[in-house]
Specification:
- It is elongated, with a radius of gyration of 32 Å.
- Helix 8 crosses helix 10.
- It is built from 10 helices and 9 strands.
- It has a 5-stranded mixed barrel with strand order 1-2-3-5-4. A 4-stranded antiparallel sheet has the order 6-7-8-9.
- By secondary structure, it is an alpha+beta fold.
């Protein structure tokens, strides 16, 4: 057997050299003191420790949408921040002005270290959900940019957080704890900014955008499951759904006396395609405004890794009617 021959060679190669006295002692030893040679076919290694089974721990990916608020982990940092705000003659609530302040002579940000030591909390539908842990200064700057006050709008700023679920972290002066998220990427936008981004494609109506967002907001989620991540990704990274909603509202159906179609439901489900990838099909249900007629569309999202992406673009979808007995 080739494996056992190799094992024998390894043992010989690592064996301590035997002196002439030791060799003579071995020659005079009794048969009971001599280790009997085992035929190679029966040689079994019994002194090796069995290998422990490899346990595969699945990482929990996060793709969450919410609003940010900075929290000071202790009173000392909070007082340092308030002193900086007083120095700059800005409100104590104007975190952006303090964190983003740049000295005109040195071009340095003297208060950036406060933002780096802050705890950034993501609120989802008004409830604290995660403590964000930026992996580099790039993410810290993205966090600061996300809390910039809107100059001409009171619209909500939606911050999208992509990363990995971490252990619970105490925050708010150690009063409570929340799950943490190791942030790989952050981006943010308002509904106006989303609409502006769609203008190069087509002039999408505000009603169409609000209709899609309304359906997405009917079920608040933490973005920690395959279905939630797929839907959250599609909401802000797939303009085609807004273009479709706008088109169905504008193309009046002559069969129903000109009534339009509006999005009434979004249903995610796992794809039935055999693959080693995690694919989520998202089904969009549009209802005619003046009848019980419906139109269905679907697209699929690959959520195998931390960054989802479109696996299959929007297509017309015909649901299978259940068989009647």
């Amino acid at each position: 057997m080739e494996t056992n021959n190799q094992l024998t060679k390894d043992v010989v190669a690592t064996e301590k050299p035997v002196s002439s006295e030791e060799s003579e002692g071995i020659d005079n030893a009794s048969d009971s003191d001599v280790i009997q040679q085992v035929p190679q076919e029966e040689m079994i290694v019994v002194d090796e420790k069995p290998q422990e089974p490899t346990i595969s721990v699945k990482e929990t990916f996060i793709y969450a949408i919410g609003q940010l608020r900075p929290v000071f982990p202790n009173k000392g940092l909070e007082k340092t921040y308030l002193f900086a705000a007083q120095t700059l003659k800005v409100s104590g609530d104007d975190y952006y002005r303090v964190f983003s302040y740049q000295d005109t002579s040195t071009k340095q940000r003297p208060y950036l270290y406060i933002a780096e030591q802050c705890q950034w909390v993501l609120r989802i539908h008004g409830v604290d959900a995660y403590v964000l842990m930026p992996v580099s200064q790039t993410e810290v700057l993205q966090l600061i940019d996300a809390i910039k006050p809107q100059e001409s709008s009171l619209q909500t700023v939606y911050t999208n957080v992509i990363g990995y679920l971490g252990p619970k972290k105490r925050y708010d002066n150690n009063e409570t704890s929340l799950p943490s998220v190791l942030c790989e990427q952050l981006y943010h936008q308002t509904m106006d900014e989303l609409q502006q981004g769609l203008i190069p494609e087509a002039s999408v109506s505000t009603q169409a955008i609000q209709g899609v967002i309304k359906q997405l907001a009917l079920a608040p989620n933490h973005g920690d499951t395959d279905f939630q991540r797929a839907v959250n990704y599609m909401a802000f990274r797939y303009p085609a759904i807004y273009l479709l909603a706008h088109s169905l509202q504008q193309k009046l159906d002559p069969v129903t006396n000109g009534a339009a179609y509006f999005l009434v439901d979004i249903q995610p489900q796992y794809s039935d395609v055999m693959s080693n990838q995690v694919i989520v099909d998202i089904i969009f249900k549009f209802k005619n405004d003046a009848s019980e007629l419906f139109k269905f569309y679907y697209c699929s999202v690959n959520v195998t890794g931390v960054y989802p992406f479109i696996n299959s673009p929007l297509h017309v979808f015909m649901p299978v009617e259940p068989e009647t007995v």
